[in-house]
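Recap slide: DED domain-containing protein, sequence and predicted structure.
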Amino acid sequence: MEEKLKCYYRVVLSRIARDLDEEELKQLLFLCRGEVPRRVTSVWELLVSLEDSAKISWMDVSFLKRCLNVMGRENLVVILTEFENKRGLSIILHAFVEEKQNVKPITHSSATEAASHLVRLMENFSGGEDLREVIRNTGEKAEDLWRQLLSEIPFSNLTWGKFSMLVAIAGEIISSSASTHLRRDHAGEDVMNKCLALGGDLSSFMLKLGCWEQFCSDLEKRFNRICRRDVSRNSPLSFWRQVADTIGDLENEIFF
C-alpha cells in the first residue's frame, strides 16, 4: 500500500513540476528560502530538495500547498488535496479490512483511528448484518453494487454523515472480497488495489464536502455520540436518563 501511494505521490509532484514556469520557480524559491540547502535550477530539483529537508513527503504536503496557495496556483493545491484525500481514504479502507480481520495497525494515525471508528459504528448499526449479506450475495459483482451506489448518490444532498456511510460500505465490500479470496496467491495485492480504486472514487466526494480534517472531526463526534454513549449505559443510570437516551436513539440514525 505504502509503495503504491508513494508512486502516486511522485506522479503528482511530476505534474506540478511540469506545470510551473521559470517565473513561478523564482516565486517558489523565494517562499522556500532557508529551506533549500543547495542551488537548484528546476522545479523538480526544488521539490526533491524540499523532500531532502523533510519539508514535504508523501505523508505531508501541507508546506507545498501553502506555497502554491500564496502563488495563486489553486489548481495545483486542488491536485495535492486530491492526493491527500485518496491517500487517507485508501489507508482507512485498508485499515478497515485489517481491523475486521483482527489485525492491529503497526502505526497509528488519523486514518487508522477513523477506520476503527467506522468498524465500531457498523457494529452498532442494526442493519449491518443485512448489508453484509447483500454484499456477500453479490459475490464477484460487489464492485458493480458499488458503482450503482455511487451513481445514485446526488452530490447536492451529500453530507459528512452520508459520506461516512459510503466509506464504511466501501470497507465492507473490500472486506467481503478479502474474505472470499483469502487463499489466493495475490489476495493481499487485490485488497490494496481495491482500496486504492475505491479510495480514489471517494476522494472526489470528499473534495466537494471539505477537507480531511473536517471528515475526521465529524466522524469523531459521530463515534462519541453513538458508541461511547453505549458504553456509558453499562453504568447505573436514572430511569429518566435511560428514557432520554432511548428518545435520542429514535431521533438519531447512525449515519444521517
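The two ends are 31 Å apart (CA to CA).
The chain has twelve helices and no strands.
(End of recap.)
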